[in-house]
Design brief:
alpha/beta; five-stranded parallel sheet; 39 strands; extended; glycoprotein; ARM-type_fold; ion transport; membrane; ligand-gated ion channel
């Protein structure tokens, strides 16, 4: 208590001192307020400063004092909010007074509530300064956010919104501020709807129940009134009546006062709801919250489990949205608010409601009101009926009642007529109802303007097509003698009387079924030819119904009466004249304007008037036409006669009414005005501005002297200097609007263009800029902004292609920090990202910065590792940057500077380049907007010196690319204006109602008006297509000029050199873009070419583009703290030294770099087991390490997050297992061949023996004899060749040929067999149960792997090995023990590890070996962050180490091979037995030789046999009986041939001379074997 008392006493003393200061000085000074704030934040002793600071928070307080007090109080209360008691708890504790802390909490709560009230007042008060309002709102929303448990402080926010609604002055600025900052948060919108619901309900209860309470219950108000009125009551009738009159007057004043306040409150509620953005529930997937909890408010408990789900949030917001709007719609809405709600309810309210059918009462009540309110309510009611199942029985009766002449004057008539057509589409519509609407519309056609009659005819046309049952209304013939049994048709009809009652509200009782559409027939004789022709087309369409379609009501859009009249004049009166004129002077465009004149009359626009016009036409409707009395002048009147034009001279007498309209045709075929005003916004004192001013003046002069464009219309350009100021640009743009300017050329600054584009959008005036290249200036945000030069989006794409072409990975961007610079560099960042490049550092320079500031920015940029600088600036700041960079030696060798097209424009405009200026930018690359070498370009360039003299400007300025684009911009506008006038466009302006609402004062907003033809002119601008000075001038669908291209320039010595071009068509090229346009696009890497560049430092060697950053920081190199295999990497805890094979390789590679790099090794791991290499790599991703050096394998999942150098050692997974010696057995001699090899060899032995027997049987006695002997001979001969021991001699040539080839085959087989058998019997063999990775996976035995290795992940995820089979092994000793134990004793069957570890292990253990080949191929490398240039340079260094032998020497130092290292090569789990494939070629040759020999032998044998048969016939007695011989041959021909083939060769020679021999031969029976002979060959 003593401590508390002292604090209180100190606070009191401080408060008293503050009071003394205030009493002396009247008010606190700024220093005193700061002192109070610091003391308040320092301790509780100065708590009484809070009331003093709170007293400064009012709208009338000085701004600086209020801001300082607000900041101090906010800093004081923010930390206390979570622990501060609630208002109810503070009131209870404040009454107790027992506990000092409770009293202190209550006091804090009261002060906090006062602060909140002060902030609300500052935010809402119209007298508050904008700065204090902004800060107060931010502080208030911070208090809302920082509630207990992070919940939304809805009571504070409700107080704020309550004050906003009850504000008597406009709160639009506050709502705009609130909408831009906080309505993007979902919870703010949610609690806004909640508060609006409460406020609207309370306001509605006051307006409805206050009167009842006052009369029935005697409320407080009535008691007070009773006390007030009672003294006025006294006896006397006169005084009583006087007091009664005063009382009534007082009540009326109070009533109107309350009514006006209620209207203001409703307006504020509506404005608040409108400013809350409507959410798209179909697209929203995530919601941004202002508070940490979300939609839970203080004191609320959300028990739902899915309170944070998207669906739940959408449901809650929809519910609150629905409640808020329903509560608001229950209020007595003023008429203007009522109309605005109805106009937007179908778009902004119904789609977002949880149950839109709830609005049926409001909409039906509105629809029943009638008049304009019903028309506006129709849209919402139609949506409820068609989409939400609303049934409204009297809908068509109400719709029928709306068809009055007043509906054609309504603001939303277009939407109403479209809905009317849609509502009458249903084929289920009763005939009487369709007839009633048709009759009602036809009757209206008699009292509306001609254009209104057109749309009525279209509606009736659609009704007759959809409902054929009412076609009788068109052809109703009256027959007095006929009778009809139908309802109305049976009633008597009277000729000349229309039974239709137009005043009847019920369509069923209107009598339409007994009437006809005589009104439409009357329109045949309408004074407007358009209407009469339309009626005629209606009858024709009904006649050929099958060939016509319904008419689109949307085609009859709003227009003017003047357009109907003008089209009629153009179609009938001027057509012959213009036809002859076009024959003499053909237009340059492809389509004649007469095609547009001959449009179908059904597309003629409507004309609507709010009031009856005082005159038929206005002078502005028909430029060049006069409507006044032309008495005393010779008037040329156009008279139509037999579709020809006659020019009749009028007399001097008073003209008749029919001749009051005259037209001076002349040469003005497009009927344009005499003068068209165009504005120019430009900075004249700039490189671009000086050139553009002269070029635009030349273009205007050329256009006005060209009769083929804007004939009869003079183009006038008013020039204004913006001086790079957005504010001045707005003022000058507004001045243009006062002078009826149809378009503005410029501005050249992107910063100014952003500001003025809002003015252009509002007043619908096209803004055509030839120099604003900011890529964010798009037609989506600024529809009336037209860029007539290429966007920086393409320029940055060319810069990105340059960077990619030269192989640089990162750049430094130096730019001016304004819209032009920021957005350009942002586009560059996007383009670089597409090519996997990036901006390493963004060096932003403040606009208007001093040279010292620029130098500081450049010094900081020079400390970065990138040496490629992209300079995107203005001409003055850009040249200053180059001068400073030159002084900082940043333009010397090793640096690269690429400047955007601003530098090209500066250099092109300078007649004599300053040598001192050029010396600062030697070797710099810059861009220039590419322009084709057109005739207009040549002409303008040749006239330039003359134009400069005529302009009396700076004669030293030359023409640059921006001047050509400015010249084309004026021509582009002229072509668009010509098309605008030819298509019927008029130059007229209408007042902007929003500007009139704020009119007053000296700003003269009343003079500003909206260009009525702005949209049409904008459309014509976007469709312009001509050949200009720069080349083809045409805009694509995105509003960009076609064929974007740039020249790439290299600054060398005292001049410029073009090294190539860039185009969006084919990228970089040394050929001009217009040449490439004639070829197919080819943007491949091989096609990208540029000429040689002389870089800074006068070298043609491409700079590296980066160096190690000179910022004093060392590279943090992570190394694994290994426990095993420390020969690769080892860390000494005592000395802190790191060495090993990997470390030596890294150090040697770093020593080869051409620049110094400082680094330090940081161990990673606990020192007890090998670390996880995956976690080690992740340290680079998290920026803990700058690189990782060690035995890190290059695997796929790691290359996704880091970059690796060239592998410095090969690595792959192998299988290490235990082996045992294999001893040979008695059947070892069979092992050299496989079973298939043995079989094929044996078969070939038999085949070769059989072939030799066939070839030798007839001539060699060794192969003759009994069959058993011959079979034995075949087997013996074939197998004896294996040992070259055959005794039988071969006599035939074919036999010798076959045996030679076969002996060669046998020799090869025998040698191979001998070598293989020798190896098997003499070399020691090792065996293992595991034969490779497949057998290892197929088994169920445990597998070992090294701790930290990627082998574990590979086995599990890639090979599908169960994790339960894997065993962690941390050292070579554990390897050996696990393999020796084996799987049955708790060990492993094999170990999967990387080859370098296994090879090192085998140098000391000879009982183990590697089985199978490597089943992965990888290597070890050093890891660096993505796109690190150091990884590329180190890869080059590693290759150098490999080439000069240093890498091998380092390997031998640490990993020398021991005597047991060859054990792996000795293991033959499956010895390489000889396969058939190894001898397939030999067997094939041998087989082919055998087949060829047999084929030749068979041919010779058949030839001998045929001769033998002929000789036998000749030797028969008597010449032989041909019949007998033929019969004998047919009987035993085959037997004779076989017998012939079996004979020995000498028998054949004497057979024909010895009949006995023939008989013996014929009597012989039985053939011992099949044979063939080549006897003729052997005998010869």
């Amino acid at each position: 208590m003593a401590k508390s008392s002292s604090a209180t006493a100190s606070a009191s003393a401080s408060a008293s001192a503050s009071k003394k200061r205030r009493s002396r000085g009247g008010t606190l000074t700024l220093d005193e307020v700061k002192t109070l704030g610091r003391e308040l934040l320092s301790s509780r002793a100065h708590l009484n400063h809070a009331p003093a600071l709170l007293a400064l928070l009012n709208p009338s307080a000085p701004l600086d004092l209020a801001l300082e007090a607000l900041i101090s109080l906010q800093s004081f209360f923010v930390p206390l909010i979570p622990s501060m008691p609630s208002a109810s708890a503070a009131a209870t504790s404040g009454d107790a007074g027992s506990d000092a802390e409770l009293v202190f909490g209550a006091w804090l709560r009261q002060r906090f509530d006062e602060l909140v009230a002060a902030l609300v007042e500052l935010s809402v008060s119209p007298h508050s300064d904008d700065a204090i309002r902004d800060v107060a709102l931010d502080a208030l929303m911070d208090f809302v956010k920082l509630g207990k448990d992070g919940k939304f402080q809805s009571p504070i926010y409700h107080k704020f919104l309550h004050a906003v609604v009850n504000a008597s002055d406009s709160v639009d600025p506050l709502l705009e501020l609130l909408g831009s900052k906080y309505f993007k948060y979902t919870d703010v919108c949610y609690f806004t709807y909640t508060s609006v619901d409460k406020i609207a309900n309370s306001l509605g209860s006051k307006t409805t129940d206050s009167g009842k309470d006052a009369l029935q219950n005697g409320s407080d108000g009535s008691k007070n009134n009773e006390k007030t009125i009672q003294p006025l009551m006294y006896d006397g009738c006169i005084d009583t009546f006087e007091h009664l009159r005063l009382l009534i007057l007082l009540c009326l004043i109070m009533f109107f006062s309350l009514h006006n306040r209620g209207v203001i409150f409703i307006h504020n509620i509506y404005n608040l709801l409108v400013h809350v953005p409507v959410m798209d529930y179909q697209k929203e997937s995530t919601f941004e919250m202002w508070s940490t909890v979300g939609l839970s408010a203080k004191g609320e408990k959300d028990s739902s489990k899915d309170s944070s789900s998207t669906t739940h949030i959408k449901k809650k917001i929809k519910l609150k949205f629905t409640k808020a709007w329903l509560s608001f719609l229950k209020l007595p809405l003023p008429l203007d608010v009522y109309k605005e709600v109805l106009a937007s309810i179908h778009q902004n309210v119904i789609p977002s409601m949880s149950n839109p059918a709830i609005l049926c009462d409001f909409l039906t009540r509105s629809y029943d009101i009638g008049g304009v309110i019903s028309v506006m309510a129709l849209s919402g009611l139609f949506i409820l009926m068609t989409q939400h199942g609303l049934e409204y029985p009297k809908f068509y009766e109400k719709l029928y009642a709306l068809l009055t002449p007043a509906v054609f004057m309504a603001k939303h008539r277009s939407v109403f007529l479209q809905l009317l057509d849609t509502c009458l589409k249903s084929s289920y519509l009763p005939a009487y109802l369709a007839a009633a609407f048709a009759k009602r519309l036809s009757r209206l056609a008699l009292s509306v303007p001609p254009a209104g009659a057109l749309i009525i005819i279209a509606l009736i046309h659609n009704l007759l097509r959809r409902h054929p049952s009412i076609n009788f209304l068109v052809h109703w013939e009256v027959d007095e003698n006929a009778s009809n049994a139908k309802e109305e048709a049976s009633q008597p009809k009277k000729i000349g009387a229309d039974p239709f009652n137009n005043d009847e509200a019920d369509p069923a009782k209107s009598g339409a079924m007994r009437s006809s559409l005589w009104e439409i027939d009357t329109l045949r004789h309408h004074y407007s030819p358009a209407v009469s022709r339309f009626v005629a087309s209606l009858e024709e369409d009904l006649t050929i119904r099958a060939k016509t379609t319904e008419m689109k009501i949307t085609d009859f859009s709003s227009g003017s009466y003047a357009t109907v009249f003008r089209d009629e004049v153009c179609l009938h009166y001027l057509q012959p004249i213009f036809t002859g004129f076009l024959d003499a002077y053909p237009l340059s465009t492809n389509v004649s304007w007469m095609d547009e004149v001959r449009r179908r009359i059904k597309q003629v626009p409507l004309a609507f008037y709010r009031t009856t016009p005082t005159s038929l036409f206005q002078g502005s409707d028909f430029p060049g036409w006069t409507f006044e009395d032309q008495s005393n002048s010779n008037v040329e009147t156009i008279i139509e006669a037999n579709e020809t034009i006659e020019m009749v001279g009028a007399s001097n007498s008073t003209p008749s009414k029919s001749s009051l309209c005259s037209c001076a045709l002349g040469q003005n075929v497009s009927m344009g005005p005499d003068v068209v005003n165009v504005g120019l916004l430009c900075t004249f004192n700039s490189t671009i501005g000086r050139v553009a001013k002269v070029a635009i003046a030349a273009a205007v002069n050329d256009i006005n002297n060209d009769p083929s464009i804007l004939s009869g219309t003079k183009l006038v350009v008013q020039m204004q200097d913006t001086n790079y100021s957005g504010f001045i640009g707005i003022v000058q743009a507004l001045k243009f609007m006062e002078k009826d300017t149809v378009a503005i050329i410029g501005p050249q600054s992107s910063v100014v263009a952003h500001v003025i584009s809002h003015v252009a959008n509002e007043l619908q005036v096209p803004l055509m800029s030839f120099a604003a290249t900011d890529p964010t200036l798009t037609s989506l945000q600024y529809p009336f902004f037209v860029r007539t030069i290429h966007s920086d989006q393409f320029q940055m794409a060319s810069v990105a292609d340059l960077v990619d072409y030269y192989g640089w990975r990162m750049v430094t961007a130096v730019y001016i920090d304004d819209d032009y610079g920021r957005n350009g560099i942002s586009s560059l960042s996007d383009e670089l990202a597409k090519r996997r490049l990036k901006i390493l550092y963004k060096a932003a320079i403040r606009p208007g910065a001093k040279k010292s500031e620029m130098a500081a920015v450049l010094v900081k940029a020079a400390m970065m590792e990138s040496r490629v600088f992209i300079l995107h600036a203005h001409d003055d700041s850009g040249l200053a940057v180059f001068s400073l960079a030159y002084n900082l030696t940043m333009t010397s060798g090793g640096y690269v500077w690429i400047a955007t097209d601003w530098l090209g424009a500066v250099l092109d405009s300078s007649p004599h380049l300053d040598s001192g200026l050029l010396s600062t930018m030697q070797g710099v690359l810059t861009l220039r907007q590419h322009t084709e070498n057109t005739n207009r370009k040549k002409t303008l360039a040749s006239r330039w010196s003359t134009l400069i003299k005529e302009d009396k400007g700076d004669g030293r300025i030359l023409l640059n690319a921006y001047g050509f684009y400015a010249y084309d911009t004026v021509w582009m506008l002229a072509h668009a204006l010509d098309a605008f006038f030819n298509s019927g466009g008029n130059i007229s302006f209408s007042p902007d109602p929003r500007l009139h609402a704020i009119a007053g004062g000296a700003l003269n907003f009343e003079a500003l008006s909206v260009f009525d033809g702005g949209m049409l002119l904008l459309d014509r601008i976007r469709k312009v297509n001509f050949m200009g000075a720069t080349g083809p001038v045409k805009l694509d669908s995105d509003g960009n000029l076609i064929h974007p291209a740039y020249d790439i320039i290299n600054i060398i010595g005292s001049g410029l050199r073009t090294i190539g071009y860039w185009s969006n068509y084919s990228g970089l090229s040394i050929m001009s873009p217009e040449t490439l346009y004639k070829k197919p696009p080819n943007g491949t890497i091989d096609n990208q070419k540029l000429r040689v560049v002389i870089w800074p430092g006068e070298t043609i060697t491409r700079p590296r583009g980066w160096v190690f950053p000179n910022n004093g920081n060392e590279l943090r190199i992570g190394v694994p703290d290994r426990v095993s295999y420390r020969q690769f990497v080892s860390f000494d805890n005592q000395t802190g030294m790191v060495d090993g094979f990997c470390i030596d390789v890294f150090s040697a590679a770093m020593n080869l770099l051409p620049y110094p790099v400082t680094y330090r090794f940081i161990p990673f791991g606990n020192g007890r087991e090998n670390p996880s290499y995956t976690q080690l790599i992740n340290q680079i991703v998290t920026n803990e390490f700058d690189a990782v050096v060690g035995d890190v394998a290059i695997v796929t999942n790691r290359t996704k997050v880091v970059d690796f150098t060239q592998p410095y050692v090969g690595s792959g997974l192998v299988i290490l297992t235990s082996v045992k010696k294999q001893s040979s057995n008695g059947w070892a001699f069979l092992q050299p061949f496989t079973i298939r090899m043995w079989s094929v060899t044996g078969v070939f032995f038999l085949i070769v023996g059989a072939v030799i027997w066939l070839l030798e049987h007839r001539i060699n006695d060794d192969f003759r004899g009994p069959p058993v002997k011959q079979v034995i001979t075949v087997f013996w001969f074939s197998f004896s060749t294996l040992f070259f021991a055959h005794r039988e001699d071969t006599r035939s040539t074919l036999g010798r040929f076959v045996i030679i080839i076969w002996l060669f085959v046998v020799l090869i087989i025998q040698s191979s067999y001998t070598a293989s058998l020798t190896s098997i019997l003499t070399v020691q063999q090792l065996t293992s149960p595991i034969r490779g990775i497949d057998s290892l996976i197929a088994s169920d035995e445990p597998i070992g792997f090294q701790v930290g290795s990627f082998a574990e992940s590979y086995l599990v995820h890639e090979l599908g090995v169960s994790p339960s089979r894997l065993r962690k092994l941390g050292s070579p000793d554990e390897y050996r023990a696990a393999l020796e134990l084996g799987p049955r004793k708790g060990g492993v069957v094999a170990i999967v590890d990387e080859r370098p570890y296994v090879e090192l292990f085998l140098t000391q253990n000879d009982k183990f070996a590697v089985v199978g080949p490597e089943f992965t191929k990888s290597g070890w490398g050093f890891a660096f962050p993505r796109d690190s240039p150091l990884a590329v340079d180190l890869s080059t260094a590693i290759l150098t180490l490999s080439e000069n032998g240093d890498l091998q020497r380092i390997h031998d130092k640490w990993l020398s091979t021991g005597p047991s290292s060859s054990t792996a090569a000795d293991l033959q789990q499956d010895p390489d037995r000889l396969q058939v494939q190894s001898f397939s070629a030999l067997f094939l040759i041998c087989g082919v030789a055998c087949i060829a020999a047999l084929a030749i032998h068979a041919c010779v044998l058949f030839r001998q046999y045929s001769r033998h048969v002929a000789a036998e016939r000749a030797a028969l007695p008597g010449g032989g009986d041909g019949a007998a011989i033929s019969h004998s041959g047919r009987r035993s021909g085959l037997r004779a041939f076989l017998s012939f083939a079996d004979r020995r060769e000498p028998q054949l020679q004497r057979g024909p001379k010895d009949p006995a021999a023939l008989g013996a031969s014929g009597s012989s029976s039985g053939v011992s074997s099949f044979t063939s002979s080549n006897a003729s060959l052997s005998s010869r």
